[in-house]
Design goal:
single chain; about 240 residues; alpha+beta; Arc Repressor Mutant, subunit A; Chorismate lyase; 2 domains; two-stranded antiparallel ribbon; DNA-binding transcription factor activity; Bact_HTH_transcr_reg
């Protein structure tokens, strides 16, 4: 059975908001403009807008218009901040599900990134990070056993940065990151609830402590529906 027209229209704007095409405080077209665009009645448009409002995505202000209310989460490439910190600061619900946790011997490619000997014991962890119970990031992490002998699934189900800094007492220095658009493989697509070959972002990062030791190498696949990147470009040295 086909979805009602108002739901189809609402879902169209829902995707535009989640993808960042429509941002916070952007104004939607008027009801009349939407009627003409979709060739439907005013009742249909109002039901679509009502659905978006009930989802907390828009706010209708009488005599002014309909504005995007939804805050998409931002990954600040300048300020190093944990996922949980970032999401909860926006009043959203951050979640983590560990789907793989295993002690392994570092292969050459991983050993190079962690700056350790090939065959050194490391933890291999795969997590799904969610925003408001929706999968947003699939993360593969590698962490040295020597730095984290008590690492556990329970730890990785919560804030990794809190564990490193508060429980282990380490001081995090920085993270080197690179971002590249890729197409979702069948496995990645399954975990992120998208179609195979759907465009996503791959974020690779190598994180160091103030001692100079590398404490993690990770590869993250970002769906991009509720998460976006923010960069600040500065001119000059001041």
């Amino acid at each position: 059975m086909a979805k009602p027209l108002y739901r189809q229209i609402a879902e169209t704007f829902e995707q535009k908001i989640y993808s960042g095409e429509l941002d916070l405080e952007d104004v939607l077209p008027t009801e009349q403009a939407l009627q003409e665009l979709y060739k439907v009645s005013r009742v249909t448009i109002r039901k679509a807008l009502e659905q978006l409002e009930n989802q907390g995505l828009v706010e209708r202000i009488k005599g002014s218009g309909t504005y995007v209310k939804y805050h998409s989460a931002k990954h600040d490439a300048i300020k190093l901040q944990g996922f949980d910190e970032n999401i909860t600061a926006l009043g959203r619900i951050a979640g983590t599900k560990v789907i793989h946790f295993q002690l392994e011997q570092a292969l050459p490619t991983i050993a190079k990134q962690l700056r350790i000997e090939v065959g050194t014991s490391i933890f291999s962890i795969v997590r799904i990070r969610t925003i408001d119970n929706e999968p947003e990031i699939l993360e593969q992490s590698y962490m040295p056993l020597s730095l984290f002998p008590d690492l556990s699934v329970k730890v990785m189900e919560s804030s990794k940065y809190h564990y490193v800094e508060q429980q282990k007492g380490y001081q995090i220095s920085h993270s080197r990151q690179d971002v590249k658009p890729v197409l979702a493989t069948t496995i990645v697509a399954k975990h992120l609830n998208v179609e195979t070959n759907h465009p996503i972002l791959r974020l690779r990062s190598v994180s160091e402590l103030k001692t100079g030791e590398t404490f993690e190498y990770s590869i993250q696949y970002l769906r991009g529906f509720q998460y976006r990147f923010e960069y600040i470009a500065r001119r000059g040295l001041d």
